[in-house]
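anyone seen this seq b4? input:
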Amino acid sequence: MQQKMKVSSNNFGGIGWYYIILTAVLFMLSAGLTTDTLNVTIDGFSALHGWANTTLLHYSTLAGYVSIAAAVLIGWLVSKKGTRAIMTATLIVSGVATIWWGYVQSPFQYLIACAIVVSCNNGYAHLCSSNLAAIWFPVRKGLFLGWSTMGIQISAVILVPIMNALLTSFGISYAYLFFGILQLVLAVVVWLTVRNTPEELGKHPDNTPMTEQEAAEYRKANEQMRSNLTIGTILKTKQTWLIAIPFGILYMTAVGVMSQLIPRLTEQGFEMSEAMFVMSVASLIGVAGSYLYGWIDVKFGVKKSSVIIMLDFIIAMLLMILPFNMVTLWISMVLVGAGLGGVANLSASFAASVFGPTGFAMAFSVINPLMGIIRVTAMSVLAFGLEYFGGYSGAYAIFFGLCIVAFFLTLLASD
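predicted toks r here
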């Protein structure tokens, strides 16, 4: 099959491009609700209820830990029930919880609502969408995800202004009501249009013509790999840890930077509109980086791509530690913006390369939570740096050191 197809080809077919757009929207919502819109909503909740900003940042970390346990369950359900059913279910639960989130009256209710939304967002975006890519386009999964993870970058451009406008005009309850209803509508769309495998629509993996014999051999090989895969086997595999730890560090770094970028800029004297403009432009430039990492993946391999993205984050964090100026700001924003989409892309692609398309769901149900254990500490690391290390530069110095660790671990990995 691979000999008949140029691996860097964008010939995904009509259904393939539809799935790219759909998953891009899901990635956008996930990044927006759990990271980007916190730039404005945390202050909104604090102003409305008198809750401390640092307390809500720590709650985001706690919610992330809850999502880790949920990811194991969701990933297992995806491997048993298929992408369509679980993507639909997580969108429904997240939609209802998002609506409730806007009406919470106590910090405990805030924590529970946030935990449910973060868990389900991770489910329908990172677990379900990545599984869809691995099954439908096993050879070109990196390129598929290179396109779809652009939604992560677009989130800052589209969702933060929308959330801020809704928050300013109608209040936080109606702002979250809007995003909750949007997820419920998407649940209906997913149920009507998504299929678990290309064979269900009479198509073949990677939109590639195959004889019946080739298709049967392909299915047999993948089923054999899935039957031999257990959680114990995954945990004993060295590559599991060499994917989870480095990419978990990068996720933590990206979330730590992007979730509080606007407060950092306003601290430096930017007006709110100016800070949002910087975030939006940097994210738009970073969209190209999301595709670039997908292209590098299929062209040169996921290992080389992963080493490059580690260097990307090291340079970005070094620039953010330096005394604040517009040149280092813009360069670091482009690097982080491009890298954020690349992390979602390459972590899933690496797992699929090691465990195969049908083994991906089970493997990623372990790898994703392991990354999550590291990722969700972002808010606490940020809060710790702000309080004890002299502000944002101190927090970025911690991220810088951890990114160096991630780089050396990636050098030990193999795809």
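The two ends are 20 Å apart (CA to CA). The chain is about 80% helix and 0% strand. kinda curious what u guys think
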